[in-house]
Structures are given as C-alpha cells and as structure tokens.
Design goal:
This protein is of the alpha+beta class and 490 residues long. The protein has three domains: 79 residues, Sandwich (Immunoglobulin-like); 255 residues, Metallo-dependent phosphatases (Purple Acid Phosphatase, chain A, domain 2, 4-Layer Sandwich), CATH 3.60.21; 114 residues, no CATH class. Helix content is 16%, strand content 31%.
Length: 490
C-alpha cells in the first residue's frame, strides 16, 4: 500500500507548492535629501525600474540575477562622487536582506545651463602615458573654471590592455579625476574581460571599478543615458556592436519617464552608423564597428531630440543617420595610441565640449593646449604632398552645416572643395617615425573632412574662413612652410 499512498500524495504536494508559492524577492530602501524622502526618483536593478513614493521609499522586485541597485540621478541634486567618479549604485548582497538607502544633496546651482565633456578612447597601455592624461585633465579643469556646472563622460576604451595585471583602470580614473570634474564611464571593447564563456562575464573587471554598464541621469532639462553596446562573442578577442534585449527593455522603461519632445543624449562606445552606411554600401559595414541593431535604438528615440555620442573609430565625424538623431563620433584622446601628436585623421589630442542651455545644445572640439578657436589645420601651397598646387584644410569637427570659404588677394573665391585623402601632418609623421612605434601596423587613415582650393599663383595671399553651424568663425592667412595658424572672431 505504501507505493500507492505515495503516488496519491505527489499531486497533492505539487498543488500545495503552487498554492503557497514564495513571494518574489524585493530590494527595499529609501532615497532622502536633508533627512526627507525624495519622491519620483527612478530606482533600478538593471532589469526593472520603479519610482520612489511620496516618502522616498521604493520596493523593487528582483529575480536574484541582478548585481546592482542604482538610481537615475534626478536634476536638482549634486552628483555623489567617490574616487572622482559618480557613485549612484550599490552592489547587491545576495545573502543579505539589507536595505539599500541613498542620500542625495540638493544642488547649490541651477543646472539648466551646464556643460558636458566627452572623452573618447584614453586607451592607456603604459604608466608613462598617464602624464598626458593629466595634462588633458588640466586643460579640462581650465574649461570648467568659469563656474558653469560641468560633468564628463569617458566613452569607453579606458585602458589598452585588459591582460595587464594590475590593470590601469584605477590610475586612469585618478588621472582624469585631477580635472575636478565628475566623470561617468562607459565600457569599451578594450575594457572587456577576454576568454570568458559568454558576454555575461565580459564586463566583470569594468564593473568592479565603475559599477553598472548602463544607467541614466538628468542635468537641467537634458536626460543622459550611458549604454553598453560591446557584445563579446567569446571567440578570442572578437566582439560586435549590439544592444541586448534586457538593455533595450530597461531603456524603454527609462525613457518612459522622459516627456516627448525633450532632448536625450545617449553615450555609447561603438558608433551606430558608418561611412559605408552613408554611401548605402551596407555589405561593407563591419559588425565590430557599428551597432548592428541600431534601428531598435532609433525607434526608442523617436519621440525625442536625440544626440548620440560615440567613440571607437579613432576619428571625428558628425552626421544624422535619421531625422531625429544627430550622431557625434569623437577622435581619441590618445591620438595614435599616444605615439603621435594627431589621431589617424589628423586631429590633435582633445575632447568634445557640449554647452547646454535649457533644451539647446551647441558643441565644439577642444584640442588640448590650444585655444577653443583653433578648429582646423591649414596647409599653404606646396605643403601637402597630396595636393601640391592647392591650399588645403582639415576641419576637425566638420558637418554639412559648416562652410569653408577662401579669399585670394582679398577677393572672395567661394567655398573650398571637399575631398577624401590623408591629412599631411599625420601622414608625414607616420612615414618618418613609425619604425619607433610601440604599436606596429597602424598609421594614418583617409578622412572626409578635408578641403582644397587652387590659387591662381603660388604667391597669392590666401585667407580661409571656416564657419561652424553656430556662426563661430576661425580664420587662417597663408604663411611659409608647414606652419598652421588660426585666428578667430565671432
């Protein structure tokens, strides 16, 4: 009889287990400022987003697979900083029922007018390169000395070699922190752990230093989102540009809190678009150089005035892949892996500066140790081996709304002709010194932001005026040799 009794008991036990299912685990805590609860703050575990209630309390259901609980930092509060880095997260202790409370400090200034600095690809391989990072940080500190609230994002490839032990994550963070500016961090392909079995384990080193790989925050009327579009395919060092479904679902929830028509700035490492895409040569796109499921991101951004800030490609480009999205690809702070004064498209070491006033954004490229008015390199007749009879210009942050005009002996000659070739400075430098490089098989590359004009005489007095989309003018008058000279006015 015992086997028969046991058979009868099994369905009863199973039914009972369904009836008395355990309540899903939950993360609990409170967000306060000056001892009072802060209502309406988004709190997330990277999967689900909830809002704090009138008392600042939140309860966040979680399936137990999340690593962090963190805030979408609201406007009106200072950025909490630890070790020079914003700290808006806590690591979840799976064996504890602790509360995860957050304390905010009310901002002393209105953030409607503020500034964002975007640093691409510091990519530090060796300690001796840290001095250059500190020099750039001093330049940024000077930019922020005017009292305008300033925040920064390092847009991936923080380090060069993940195999180096100990890694240079902390030294780079410390060097950037000397700017006195709170810098958020995005993960890049060089920041991924290699040799792990899936992408789920590829960001452990990054997370141990910087926390979540995707998150958001508000400054003034701008909603900022930092995403992780580096997907490791667990074969050698190979990766593709891709946003996983869980990240897209999180982004859907995050953007649901942002009113339509507002400005959203998305920072990620791998660009969403490419030169090949602009030409309609879809088969020439490389999956590790572009966000493969970009249409999903563009769709989520449709209600907004969106700017995408990316890095990875080691050159500057600006374009609109779709009508509501403007993408800015940033040249690397590290130039050609810290071996040259310029990146592969002839742009000097620098960073992007975005000036925000309400919903309005203006921007420019800031070369380290140069005045902000310096926005191009110019070469007199004979200086550029690729255009021997022409004066040539490399306009670093060009987009189609810019104009590049020239004058001969005081007479206007119209717009210069855009062309694709190599910038003379980086081309010549690589030709002369590449045998000394630590990193072989790299060099100058073609760039599309070059312009030329052929004077009637090589002795003509030539003036070039470059006007950006905001009406700022940089000018150059021809000089002898290879010297580049700019003056500017507004």
């Amino acid at each position: 009889m015992r086997p028969r009794i046991f058979q009868l008991l099994i369905p009863m036990l199973l039914a009972g287990s369904c009836t008395f299912a355990a309540e899903p685990a939950a993360l609990r805590g409170r967000v306060t400022a000056r001892g009072n609860g802060v209502a309406g703050v988004s709190v997330t575990d990277g999967l689900t987003i909830v809002r704090t209630d009138a008392k600042g309390d939140y309860r966040l259901p979680t399936g137990g697979e999340s690593e962090f609980v963190y805030l979408s930092l609201p406007d009106g509060y200072e950025i909490p900083v630890e070790k020079g880095t914003p700290c808006i997260y806590q690591r979840i202790d799976p064996d504890s029922r602790k509360r995860y409370d957050f304390t905010l400090t009310a901002a002393s200034r209105n953030m409607a007018r503020h500034r964002l600095l975007l640093v691409a690809d510091p990519q530090v391989y060796f300690e001796e390169e840290l001095d250059s990072v500190r020099r750039a940080a001093a330049d940024m500190r000077h930019i922020a000395s005017d009292g305008v609230p300033t925040v920064g994002v390092v847009c991936g490839d923080i380090i060069g070699d993940i195999y180096r032990k100990p890694s240079l994550f902390e030294p780079v963070r410390e060097a950037v922190a000397t700017s006195g500016i709170p810098f958020f961090y995005a993960v890049g392909n060089h920041d991924m752990d290699l040799g792990v079995r899936t992408n789920d384990y590829a960001k452990e080193s990054f997370k141990s230093h910087f926390g979540p790989t995707y998150y958001s925050f508000d400054r003034g009327r701008i909603h900022y989102v930092v995403l992780d579009d580096n997907f490791y395919i667990a074969r050698s060092y190979l990766y593709v540009g891709y946003l996983e479904e869980r990240q897209l679902r999180w982004l859907e929830q995050d953007l649901a809190t942002v009113p339509a028509g507002r400005t959203v700035v998305v920072c990620l490492h791998i660009p969403t678009w490419s030169r090949a895409a602009r030409r309609g040569e879809w088969g020439k796109e490389e999956s590790n150089k572009v966000l493969n499921n970009r249409r999903a991101l563009y769709k989520l951004l449709e209600p907004y005035n969106a700017h995408i800030l990316s890095a990875h490609e080691h050159y500057n480009e600006n374009y609109q892949p779709v009508g509501h999205v403007f993408e800015h690809v940033h040249a690397p702070l590290s130039t050609l892996f810290w071996q040259t004064p310029w990146s592969m498209d002839g742009i000097p070491a620098g960073y992007g500066v975005y000036e925000i006033d309400g919903d309005s954004i203006t921007w420019y490229y800031k070369a380290v140790d140069h005045d902000r008015s310096r926005q191009f390199n110019a070469y007199p007749v004979g200086a550029d081996r690729h255009k021997k009879k022409a004066v040539t210009v490399n306009v670093w942050n060009y987009d189609p709304a810019w104009t590049v005009r020239w004058y001969e002996n005081g007479e206007p000659r119209g717009e210069m002709t855009q062309y694709t070739n190599y910038d003379e400075s980086i081309y010549d430098y690589v030709a002369r010194f590449s045998d000394r490089f630590k990193h072989k098989n790299i060099g100058s590359d073609l760039t599309e932001h070059l312009f030329y004009a052929v004077p009637s005489s090589p002795d003509a007095v030539v003036r070039i005026e470059v006007r950006d989309r905001f009406g700022n003018i940089s000018a150059w008058n021809n000089v002898s040799g290879h010297e580049k000279a700019n003056d500017s006015n507004k």
